[in-house]
Design goal:
heterodimer; A: 357 residues; alpha+beta; Ribosomal Protein S5, domain 2; four-stranded antiparallel sheet; two-stranded antiparallel ribbon; 10 helices; B: 245 residues; five-stranded mixed sheet; 10 strands; 31% helix; globular
Chain lengths: 357, 245
């Protein structure tokens, strides 16, 4: 749901990393006093579970997730419980006010993105920056400047002083964020007491959290006209393009020129060979069909209408049985696959001829 | 933990080591004939086995092939009998996935993947006995295995864990020290340039102490490098003797 690149239902690498990072950040740092969750020693205990749903991914989900998790834990109230001897009484929220969790400290993650082998460092990368970064360093700290977790990922090479510098920056950021969180929690408590409206829907309406605004970037267009003229004056005139004669394949299908080279990347060598040979074979087949005899290629060149544009260096002839020719015409107009199947046959013949020579 | 001093007044740890001392390391290369490269390492009581296959053609989906680099694939598995209590899931659980990802990240940075485009290098690591410092042992074993397979790397990748107790940084933590809940740092280093390939830390550590702990881990990793270097040279000597060069 959060971004077009995320597939539903797959436990991807990112999920594992995020999960483990948050687990370590929240569990191993002992931010919650787990002993206070015990009801009856050895028998009954409260289990706390944090479920995180990512709604919109605009970069740096680690930081956002850690803030959300710790604020949720701070905000949470559990039902009150009293133990008298062997009797355990669980009070509903109406009977007794729910009790908050006892939280020692608030670990907050700060992410640093590295670019160009550590030359550039960006705090809190957004989605575009994340896509092109070399690697990421996540430091989780609390406001007492205790580091709860450090995790470097992405295969970057760090130097010790870079790590130390990042930890200092993280300290500053964490202090700001913790203040923000405290204010928000107090605000929420106040509003609840006064009986006002609170909750997720309220915060959306205020346009403060999930509004999507793209800021207009100012572009200097003062001397665009002059710059354009300069560029045109300095540029060379376009080179002459030689226009080749059109080649008529069948009524209704013509070809002008040969087009540029196929730039679809490295296909398997044998595949490419196949295609080349197949292509040139098609030209030969058609011409033979038109002439209705096995003809030498050089003869065809003297005719005006069909020009063979074949870069094949073979000068062998391909003799086709005359009764097969009508079938060949039809296959060419039907589909690519069948064309290839048809061309495979003459290819085999050609190979035999090579062996003979 | 009450009653257990991780660092005594005289500066001795629970197993009698000093603060910056490593455990005894023994390593062997070329333990399996079938694999392209293999190695076995013992760091104190932690035993890890690493096996490398590659570079070979990409198995599975060809779409994953990278046109200019080799793909590094790591799998971490810790045996069910490796810990005190029997582990239910040797691999496939989240912790093993994470370890696999971290190993992969470490070795992708260290192996010269540009030399083998569109191929795959598999690194399998198995922990036979876990007594603290499993990540470090895995990385060290994997380095030796990659060297045994003849895959070119930028430098050795040496890893060590470090902790912090009573104002002193400890190097190469054992299970007892890890379980005590203090801060633990795992560091993978390329010794020649001092570049950090992977840095991971758990539990609370004050920012001011970070430098000391990093320094202790880096020093320990360099010591590991000296040892591994010696092991590799010895192995090459033995192998060349057998080949009759």
């Amino acid at each position: 749901m959060a971004a077009p690149a995320f597939e539903p239902g797959r436990q991807s690498d990112l999920l594992v990393k995020l999960n483990r990072l948050l687990e370590r950040c929240l569990r191993n740092s002992k931010c919650i006093d787990t002993e206070s969750l015990c009801v009856v020693a050895g028998e009954k205990v409260w289990q706390i579970r944090v479920d995180l749903h990512l709604l919109n991914h605009d970069g740096n989900i680690i930081d956002a997730a850690s803030i959300a998790a710790i604020v949720a834990l701070c905000h949470f109230r559990r039902p009150d419980v009293s133990v008298q001897g062997d009797e355990v009484t669980l009070y509903t929220p109406e009977e007794r006010d729910p009790v908050p969790l006892s939280i020692h400290h608030m670990p907050i993650c700060v992410s640093f993105a590295f670019f160009q082998q550590g030359t550039y460092l960006l705090v809190d990368p957004n989605e575009r920056e994340e896509r092109v970064m070399d690697g990421l360093l996540v430091i989780a700290m609390n406001k007492h400047r205790e580091i709860c977790t450090i995790q470097s990922s992405g295969g970057i090479m760090l130097l010790k002083d870079q790590v130390l510098r990042c930890s200092k920056i993280a300290g500053v950021k964490v202090a700001e964020i913790t203040e923000l969180i405290q204010k928000a929690l107090e605000n929420d408590q106040k509003v609840r007491k006064e009986g006002g409206k609170f909750g997720f829907a309220e915060s959306i309406a205020n346009q403060r959290i999930t509004a999507f605004k793209m800021e207009k970037a100012p572009v200097d267009t003062s001397d665009v006209g002059e710059k354009a003229e300069e560029i045109i004056a300095e540029a060379e005139p376009p080179s002459e393009v030689s226009v080749s004669n059109p080649v008529l394949w069948t009524p209704g299908t013509a070809q002008i020129g040969e087009g540029i080279e196929n730039s679809w990347g490295d296909l398997e060598d044998s595949e490419k060979e196949d295609e080349d040979e197949g292509g040139s074979d098609e030209a030969i087949i058609l011409d033979n069909v038109k002439m209705d005899t096995g003809v030498d290629i050089s003869n065809i060149g003297s005719q005006d209408a069909p020009i063979v544009l074949s870069d094949s260096e073979e000068e062998e002839m391909i003799i086709l049985e005359p009764d097969k020719s009508p079938k060949k015409i039809r296959t060419q107009t039907i589909g690519v696959k069948q064309e290839k199947a048809a061309s495979k046959k003459p290819m085999k013949k050609r190979k035999k001829k090579r062996a003979v020579n | 933990m009450a009653g257990l001093d991780l660092l005594s007044d005289q500066g001795y740890r629970v197993d009698g080591r000093r603060a910056g001392e490593l455990r005894k390391i023994q390593a062997r290369m070329g333990v399996f004939a079938q694999a392209d490269g293999s190695a076995y390492i013992e760091q104190g009581n932690t035993k890890a086995l690493a096996v490398v296959y590659g570079p070979h053609e990409i198995r599975g989906s060809r779409a994953r092939a990278l046109p200019d680099r080799a793909l590094v694939n790591c799998q971490y598995s810790s045996a069910t009998f490796s810990t005190g209590e029997r582990k239910r899931r040797p691999h496939g659980d989240r912790k093993s996935c994470e370890m696999g990802l971290q190993l992969r990240q470490t070795f992708e940075a260290a192996i010269l993947t540009q030399l083998h485009p569109r191929s795959q290098i598999d690194i399998y690591v198995q922990v036979l006995q876990a007594d603290g410092g499993t990540y470090a042992a895995c990385v060290n074993a994997a380095t030796l295995a990659v060297l045994d397979a003849g895959i070119p790397m930028r430098d050795f990748v040496c890893a060590c864990s470090a902790g912090f107790v009573d104002g002193t940084a400890l190097a190469d933590l054992s299970h007892v020290e890890e379980a005590a809940g203090g801060p633990q740092l795992a560091l993978a280093l390329l010794p020649a340039s001092g570049q950090i390939a992977l840095l991971e830390m758990d539990a609370r550590l004050h920012e001011d102490h970070l430098e000391r702990v990093l320094e202790a881990a880096a020093r320990a990793a360099r010591d590991v490098h000296t040892l591994l270097d010696h092991v590799v040279r010895q192995h090459v000597c033995e192998a060349s003797l057998l080949l009759g060069d």
